[in-house]
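Render this sequence as a predicted structure.
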Amino acid sequence: MAFAALGDNRRAWEIMTMINPVNHARSFEAMATYKVEPYVIAADVYAFPPHTGRGGWTWYTGSAGWMYRLIVESLLAAA
């Protein structure tokens, strides 16, 4: 949201694409790595072996609400 507020919509879309849970399940291999639901926001994604890329702490309604606001208020409103 900060990048969108600064007018850097390209970077805001890049980050949104990176954190979008659907993009962590585009292949069987990606799903096997991510291991959590691809339709909810994970609070964290592990960065160290042996769990690199695994999602954790899903089902945070606050995270879903902020993702919705990011998409609707910051990205689509600026498009």
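Summary. Strands lie at 44-45, 55-56. The chain has a mean pLDDT of 88.
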